[in-house]
Amino acid sequence: MLEIILFSFGIMYTPGPLNILSINQGVNKRFKSMFGFFVGVGVAMMVWLIVIGYSGERFVKKSYIIYISIIGALYILYLAYKVLKSSIDLAGEDSTKALALKDGFLLQLFNPKAPLAVLPLATIIFPANGITGYKITIVSILLSIMAGMAPCVYGYLGERFSYIILNKRVIKLFNGLMAFLLVYVAITIIWDHVYLVFTGVKPY
């Protein structure tokens, strides 16, 4: 379960289009009008988690997990690199009105980062931790709440602490921490689901 939390936190709480939009809205004092937007983001993420989660349960056999884990760990390391190199740029992101539920839902639903972030969770970490059947729905709901809270946090910081969130040194330190968490998750996946399985210590 720790893998799920760390991976989700490392992906959801790093600067991305939705979080940057939320900072922008916060800076422009629209945070209190954005709760529908946050809910929309969470609902869209829940859709992705449930669809890919149950698809993974049905089509991904346990014997495939060792190979998927290798690919997934490499992909997570790539994400860590991207996070480490990412930055926040609010130029041109201002809008004339507060973002609503529909905006959050559609932006997250068609955000290419969403399904790519869900794939390692649903195809590797879920089955490896015994998250199948109804448990997929429960965990998906919890993670969708976590996903909706990410832009909420950014929006609040944008309104209250813009001088901190726009500080390049702070962003670099934060991204470094998130990248470290992702690297840790990748290493645990390789250890638990590749090395231990390959050596026969942990048979599937």
What does this structure look like?
The protein is an all-alpha fold and 204 residues long. Helices cover 76% and strands 0% of the residues. It is built from nine helices and no strands. Helix 1 packs antiparallel against helix 6, helix 1 packs parallel to helix 7 and helix 2 runs parallel beside helix 7. The longest helix is centred in the last third of the chain and has 31 residues. It is globular, with a radius of gyration of 18 Å. 41% of the residues are buried. About 2% of the residues have low confidence.
Strand and helix map with partners:
Layout: H1 2-12, H2 17-27, H3 35-59, H4 65-85, H5 101-109, H6 113-128, H7 134-160, H8 162-165, H9 168-198
Helix pairs in contact: 1-6, 1-7, 1-9, 2-7, 3-5, 3-6, 3-7, 4-6, 4-9
